[in-house]
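Hi support team,

I've been running sequence recovery on a batch of backbones for a student project. Most finish fine, but this one hangs at about 90% for roughly twenty minutes before it completes. I'm not sure whether the input is malformed or the queue is just slow. I've pasted the structure tokens below so you can try to reproduce it. Let me know if you need the job ID as well.

Thanks,
M.K.
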């Protein structure tokens, strides 16, 4: 079951400048940076009541976010819904005809298990599902 809007992700061409903007100009609480090998991204998270903002930037200049930035220069990249049972949600949505970018969930940021629904299945919006690790 989907239980929350976990985060909204923004693809940024200059991660340090974007971190400064969110921290200094917007005054949003900086939670930290994390390189996510599975997604080939450098990410920065900001806490805001009820959800968070994830800034995504290509790790080593490669991967899907690099292609996104080449095409669009930056922008809202994906939404992430938190799931309390990601395997059940994937199975339920697959049965309804939703397409996913991978066959199964895999490790993402914050040790969550994540999977992306293909934008074709959601009116052009890339949607991530994540499940918190045990004990969170
Ligand atoms: Co995300």
């Amino acid at each position: 079951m989907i239980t929350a809007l976990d985060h909204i992700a923004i693809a940024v061409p200059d991660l340090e400048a974007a971190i400064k903007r969110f921290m200094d100009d917007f005054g949003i609480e900086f939670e930290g940076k994390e390189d996510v090998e599975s997604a080939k991204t450098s990410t920065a998270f900001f806490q805001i009541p009820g959800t968070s903002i994830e800034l995504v930037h290509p790790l080593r200049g490669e991967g899907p976010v690099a292609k996104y930035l080449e095409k669009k220069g930056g922008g809202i990249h994906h939404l992430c819904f938190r799931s309390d049972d990601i395997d059940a949600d994937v199975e339920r949505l697959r049965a309804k005809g939703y397409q996913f970018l991978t066959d199964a969930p895999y490790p993402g940021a914050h040790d969550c298990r994540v999977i992306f629904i293909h934008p074709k299945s959601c009116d052009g919006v890339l949607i991530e599902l994540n499940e918190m690790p045990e004990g969170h």
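--
Follow-up from support: It reproduced on our side and the slowdown came from queue contention, not your input. The mean pLDDT is 95. No action needed from you.
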